[in-house]
Amino acid sequence: MSKKVLVLGEVRDGELRNVSYEAIAAAKEIAAGGEIVAVLCGEGMSNHGQTLLHYGADRVVLAEHALLNEYSTDGYVQALLQVIDQEKPEGLVLGHTALGKDMSPRLAARLESGLISDVTSLEKVGEEVIFTRPIYSGKAFEKKVIQDGLIFVTIRPNNIPPLELDESRSGDVSTLSVDVKDLRTIIKDVVRKASTGVDLSEAKIIVAGGRGVKSTDGFKPLQELADVLGAAVGASRGACDADYCDYSLQIGQTGKVVTPDLYIACGISGAIQHLAGMSNSKVIVAINKDPEASIFSVADYGIVGDLFDVVPLLTEEFKNVLV
Ligand code: FAD
């Protein structure tokens, strides 16, 4: 039976996040021919609405209110509840991002619905959609179905391929003036850390450094390799604890969970807590001078050597091929 499915489009720093397109692709599976309605919160979002149509949404609702220009749990939950009340969807898909992780449990509680979080893939078996999600820090996967009520899921970025961009796709973009009030948190100012470019959680390629980089300067060759590859730089907690880099780069159980196409681990031993954040990467390359390092047990390609010799060689080779 076809279903109407709502998708939240996520905008950060004025840009739509890729996970919004991936959510539309996931919603298509759930909808089984039904309608996909994308929702955008905040003012001045109509251009983004068009982009969501090009990525496969059938219709877009702009939930407008000045208090939604910056994310707050209260504000977004209030807005989405009003859109849900208007649209009465049978499915709801959000990204398993900082925003999605923050608001989805509250939304599920308000809707008295279940929630399957951190979905990495989904498959149709007859009428049912089976969702796969990692458990035990990625050491095992469970498969779940929702048999009754709203099909509410959050999807892990970089796992469900988006539909092809098709600029000929069109659809209705309507505005809903939502009522947002009694916010317990008012965002007065957002102070951003200087970013080195590519967003870690959505990066297709990550060059990560561990305690083996030995200093802040030791990250420089990794950054050079990342620049040539258009990659993001990440780190183990060992490197963060040693103050070689900022904690915002930490990957792992207590850091970011990433699933890039290519993960290059440099001077990282491969502790279980680190693997929890990156072992689902599609291709893993490990560079470590200890041939017994655990990182090699998850690596597709292992290079036993000193990262300060190997990384610059890789950078030179990639420069020849790519630049
Ligand atoms: P090390 O284990 O010290 O490894 C350094 C590696 O570099 C070694 O294998 C060494 O052979 C290699 N090396 C040294 N010099 C060179 C060189 N010149 N060239 C090549 N290789 C070299 N860790 C995380 O990463 N993320 C988490 O989210 C996380 N969460 C945690 C949560 C808890 C509750 C706990 C208890 C721990 C957590 N940890 C986490 C820490 C984790 O257990 C490890 O301590 C940490 O991952 C080790 O970091 P590392 O591999 O960089 O350092």
Automatic annotation (TrEMBL):
<feature type="domain" description="Electron transfer flavoprotein alpha/beta-subunit N-terminal">
    <location>
        <begin position="5"/>
        <end position="190"/>
    </location>
</feature>
<protein>
    <submittedName>
        <fullName>Electron transfer flavoprotein subunit alpha</fullName>
    </submittedName>
</protein>
<dbReference type="InterPro" id="IPR029035">
    <property type="entry name" value="DHS-like_NAD/FAD-binding_dom"/>
</dbReference>
<keyword id="KW-0285">Flavoprotein</keyword>
<dbReference type="Pfam" id="PF01012">
    <property type="entry name" value="ETF"/>
</dbReference>
<dbReference type="GO" id="GO:0033539">
    <property type="term" value="P:fatty acid beta-oxidation using acyl-CoA dehydrogenase"/>
</dbReference>
<keyword id="KW-0274">FAD</keyword>
<dbReference type="InterPro" id="IPR014730">
    <property type="entry name" value="ETF_a/b_N"/>
</dbReference>
<dbReference type="InterPro" id="IPR018206">
    <property type="entry name" value="ETF_asu_C_CS"/>
</dbReference>
<dbReference type="InterPro" id="IPR001308">
    <property type="entry name" value="ETF_a/FixB"/>
</dbReference>
<feature type="binding site">
    <location>
        <begin position="267"/>
        <end position="274"/>
    </location>
    <ligand>
        <name>FAD</name>
    </ligand>
</feature>
<dbReference type="GO" id="GO:0050660">
    <property type="term" value="F:flavin adenine dinucleotide binding"/>
</dbReference>
<dbReference type="GO" id="GO:0009055">
    <property type="term" value="F:electron transfer activity"/>
</dbReference>
<keyword id="KW-0813">Transport</keyword>
<feature type="binding site">
    <location>
        <begin position="236"/>
        <end position="237"/>
    </location>
    <ligand>
        <name>FAD</name>
    </ligand>
</feature>
<keyword id="KW-0249">Electron transport</keyword>
<comment type="similarity">
    <text>Belongs to the ETF alpha-subunit/FixB family.</text>
</comment>
<feature type="binding site">
    <location>
        <position position="211"/>
    </location>
    <ligand>
        <name>FAD</name>
    </ligand>
</feature>
<dbReference type="InterPro" id="IPR033947">
    <property type="entry name" value="ETF_alpha_N"/>
</dbReference>
<feature type="binding site">
    <location>
        <position position="288"/>
    </location>
    <ligand>
        <name>FAD</name>
    </ligand>
</feature>
<dbReference type="Pfam" id="PF00766">
    <property type="entry name" value="ETF_alpha"/>
</dbReference>
<feature type="binding site">
    <location>
        <begin position="250"/>
        <end position="254"/>
    </location>
    <ligand>
        <name>FAD</name>
    </ligand>
</feature>
<dbReference type="InterPro" id="IPR014729">
    <property type="entry name" value="Rossmann-like_a/b/a_fold"/>
</dbReference>
<dbReference type="InterPro" id="IPR014731">
    <property type="entry name" value="ETF_asu_C"/>
</dbReference>
